[in-house]
Structures are given as C-alpha cells and as structure tokens.
TrEMBL record:
Record bears the keyword Transmembrane: no
Catalytic site: 241
GO molecular function: O-methyltransferase activity; protein dimerization activity; quercetin 3-O-methyltransferase activity
This protein's record includes keyword Transferase: yes
Cited InterPro entries: COMT-like (IPR016461), COMT_C (IPR001077), COMT_dimerisation (IPR012967), SAM-dependent_MTases_sf (IPR029063), WH-like_DNA-bd_sf (IPR036388), WH_DNA-bd_sf (IPR036390)
EC number(s) given by UniProt: 2.1.1.76
Domain O-methyltransferase C-terminal: 122-312
Domain annotation O-methyltransferase dimerisation: ranges: 14-88
PROSITE patterns: SAM_OMT_II
Gene Ontology BP, a term: methylation
A Pfam family reported for this protein in Swiss-Prot or TrEMBL: Dimerisation
Protein name, UniProt field: O-methyltransferase
Keywords: Methyltransferase, S-adenosyl-L-methionine, Transferase
C-alpha cells in the first residue's frame, strides 16, 4: 500500500484541530451527557431530553466526538459509551469530567487568551486580565474554585497511587503533606503503610472542608508564613510549579526550618526533559507562565532551587504517572 505523505501544512492543521476536539469535549462535560448513560445505548431524543439540549445540535456534537472515539454511534441517532467517553461520567473511577471543566473553563481560558501579555512583559496574563490572582479568583468565585478542587482530585488520584507505589515511605513515622488540599495523596500513602501518621496542612478555608482518616491530622495555616513541625518527611505535590523561584524558595525555607536534621523533602512534580523530547510538562509550563506565574522545571533547575533554599537534591524517581518524586535532604 502506498504511503501518503503528510505535509507540514496538514500537520499544523491537525494540531490546531486539537482545539476543536478539546472544546467539543468541554461541551459534553458541561451538559453532563455521559452521566445519562447506563449499560445501554441511548437515542438522541433520550439524551437531549435528559440534558435539556436541542436534539439536532446534540447529535452533531456526539457525531464529531464519536469520530475520535469519544462515544460511538451504534445505529442511526443512537449512541453508546466508549472507554474514553466513560471518563466524562461524574462518578466513574478515574473520572476526568471536572478536569475538563477546569482546564477549558473561563479561568484557564482567560490565561490562554491573554497569553501575549506574558510573552511581552513576563507578567502573569491571568492577573492582568482578571485584576486578581487565580487564587483570589477562586476565593471570589467558589463554584469555579470547587470545580478546580475536584479537578485536582480527579487527576490527583492516579498520581497518588503511582507515588505511593514508587517510593519507600515505610522509613518514616509522620509525613507532613504541605498544601495537600483534600488529602488524596497523604491518604493513599497512609492507607498503603498502616504504621504511618500524617499531617494535612493547607489554608483554613480548605481544611474546614476536608474529611480524612483519623490517623491524619488536619492543620490550617499558610505555607508562606510557616509549616508545622513534627514530621520526618515533608511532602508537596504540585506546589512548586504554582510559584516562581522567589516564592517557591520561601516555602522551601519554611519546610527546612520545620524539618528535623534527618528529615527528607519529597516534591511530586512533572520534570521537563532536555532538548526536543516531547512532554506534556513543556505545555503545562506555558499554562503556569500565563495562569499563575509558576513554572515546570528541569532536574537541573530543581537542583539549583533546592540548593539555594538549604537542600541537596539526592535523586529523581519516576513514577507510572506524569509526575516524578524529587527527593532532597538538608545540606550538611
């Protein structure tokens, strides 16, 4: 069979078309159409009635999504779930619905749409457009904040499982999860190591909503001011990438002050690979540039950041997820 050569123009067109697919997935997540399905196919009439949408418009959306494996048209005007579509169900294991809603929602879109501001000034595009930081935005728009929090749980659960399986946490007695949100990571680790105790540390408005195991002590505070003592390991997932080096160093130095001499620091982050190697972390880095002023980092950059904050990077441990574990100790 003759191979058809794909031109550079077609490749770029296909890459741009990824935006259309993403927006279509977002529409499906917004109306919650995947939640209508059980084990049986549904007609467009049934789906439209359940989602309060216009049947022909809904059909056009699902037809497009079925062409990329999200839903399948099993007969004329009749659709069924596929494994990809099932990830859009709100309550399914491994649900991605809230991640879709967060990533494609107004807050993230505001950062991307105004990204040119970041390129020209080095400033945060979201802050310039919204007149406030992303964190202030979520505080003033609790519905968006809740979607973001649920999105982090959606994507965080498989990462937590991968982290718990990739590192020897049995060497510790008490782990402090700094900025741990709803506690999915520390909960998974404590569940896997029954002797462990945990401390879940986050802002007061976060801590008042958590529901964790009795072996995990919730503590409210601000990691820019201080971090609880009492742990022999200090754990942070997706905290460093939210902030620039100056603010990240403040957090790290507060951990350094709280840690015992023999303690270990564990950062769960995406590591940017060198050169032209493809990696989602490189595009996530652009999102952080425009959205929060944070950044993804290379191993070399983490080594430098940690050293300037009183730590020595010991090793970077890959996991079966998008994240690696950066292990560091206090410098002698």
């Amino acid at each position: 069979m003759e191979t058809v050569e794909v031109t550079p123009q077609q490749t770029v067109f296909d890459l741009i078309g990824g935006f259309w697919i993403a927006r279509s997935i977002y529409l499906a997540a917004q109306i919650g159409v995947a939640d209508v399905f059980d084990d049986q196919p549904k007609t467009i009439a049934q789906l439209a009635e359940a989602t309060h949408t216009e049947p022909r418009s809904l059909y056009r959306l699902l037809r497009a999504l079925a062409s990329v494996g999200i839903f399948t048209e099993v007969s004329d005007q009749c659709f069924a779930l596929t494994p990809l579509a099932a990830t859009l169900k709100s309550d399914s294991p491994g649900s991605m619905r809230y991640l879709v809603l967060a990533q494609m929602g107004d807050d993230h879109s505001l950062a991307w749409i105004n990204g040119l501001h970041s390129l020209k000034t080095g400033e945060i595009a979201f802050d310039a457009a919204a007149g406030m930081s992303a964190w202030e935005y979520y505080a003033q728009h609790p519905e968006a904040g809740q979607i973001f929090s649920q999105a982090m749980t959606n994507i965080g659960t498989p990462v937590a499982q991968a982290v718990a399986a990739s590192y020897d946490f049995s060497q510790f007695n008490t782990i402090v999860d700094v900025g741990g949100s709803q506690g999915s990571l520390i909960s998974e680790i404590v569940r896997s190591h029954p002797h462990l105790k945990g401390i879940l540390f986050d802002l007061p408005e976060v801590i008042e909503t958590v529901n964790v195991d009795e072996k995990i002590q919730p503590i409210a505070g601000n990691f820019f001011e201080s971090v609880p003592t009492g742990g022999d390991a200090y754990l942070m997932r997706w905290i460093m990438h939210d902030w620039n080096d100056e603010k990240s160093s403040i957090i790290l130095k507060n951990c350094h002050q709280a840690m015992p001499t023999h303690g270990k620091l564990l950062l769960v982050e995406s590591i940017i690979p060198p050169g032209n190697e493809p990696s989602p972390a490189k595009f996530l880095d652009v999102l952080m540039m425009t959205g929060t002023g944070g950044q993804e980092r290379t191993e070399k950059e983490y080594r430098s950041l940690l050293r300037s904050s009183g730590f020595e990077l010991k090793q970077v441990i890959p996991t079966e997820s998008m994240c690696s574990i950066v292990e560091a100790v206090k410098r002698a």
